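Checklist before submission:
- one chain only
- standard amino acids only
- sequence pasted in full

Submission:
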Amino acid sequence: MKYNPKKHHRRSVRLKGHDYASAGWYYITICTHEREFLFGEIVQSQMRPSRTGVIAHKCWNEIPRHFPRAAMDVSIVMPNHLHGIIVIGGGTPWRAPMAAHKEAFGKAAPGSLATIVRLFKQAVTIQAGTDVGARHGVPLQVWQKNFYEHIIRNEDELNRIREYICNNPLRWPYDSENPARNRDAVDEIEDILGTEEDSER
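Returned file contents:
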């Protein structure tokens, strides 16, 4: 599936004043380069990962080894994207402190959400690229630039997002990232998470 800038570009609406290195729970979506099906396929509502999909899953779950303040909640690797919840600093998600410090423009603070995701993407690219490049002699582009984040603000929202992530393979026929989707149902599925509050970076 080719990337369409008119369709897929989203304006950054990061929450002003929020310290993305502070304690909090964050819902993350990361898409593959040009929405290509690099991570596997859905067969009978089950995700069957490719080798690159297995690498992405492994690197995601290894994030706490490299960032001790980070913990992983539920996640799912889909054919052309990944959903997951990252917990930074523990605590209750809807009591995250505000603005202890700010990231400099273009430079993510150590241990911040942006740093965690950037290094995760790098790890997947290196490991998958080594595997694919050894066989095909070409570098592998895994990720679309940036990622989408949503600050989880209450328990109801947390449970709703967890359910959405866990049921993502079942919803694949209606997923906006699925080129063969049921278009009439896309808006209903996207409304589940209140996507107008998401940020892209």
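Reviewer check: The radius of gyration is 17 Å.
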